[in-house]
Amino acid sequence: MLGVILGLSAVVAGIDQLIKYFIVEYLKPVKSASVIDGLLSLIYVENRGVAFGMFQDHVIVFAIITALLISVFIYLIVKKKFTGPLFAASAVLMIGGGIGNLIDRIFRQYVVDYLSVSFFPPVCNFADYCITIGAVLFVIVLFMQTKDNTSDKTEPSAASENGEEITDNETDSAEEQSEEISDGEHDAK
Is this model's pTM higher than 0.85 or not? Predict the structure, then answer.
């Protein structure tokens, strides 16, 4: 799985760099171009900060942070902390987008931004959108895993579905605890 995720991440980073190449070659000289009037414009921006242009001129710090975050995702993949297609998609988008922007920070000392939509003022790029979508997918993965872990602990049948055997003593104990709770509520009334 690691090889597939890293391969697809390289494709995402490659697409990002290819787009940025064309932006630098053809958009930088003219600065901006309208794609869909009132909705989407291409605007050449040299972003020396992070998301939305915050924290300008800390390129080395952000390059290190980006490399660390990419390493964390690779660690999670190797250790199989998360699995499944949704996690894989999340990892591909975040690692690929992170690498795309990391390449800019290392070789240009800034990130090339160019996408401007009317309903979202900051100018962003393909990698930024990949990272954002990947992060949303990762939050969904975390939510689903938390929900799965919670349901495994609360449902008595979860152990038997996982192939574990439930003894009569465990079943009786759970039933007795349930009856004691019911009796306690009855006595309180």
Answer: no
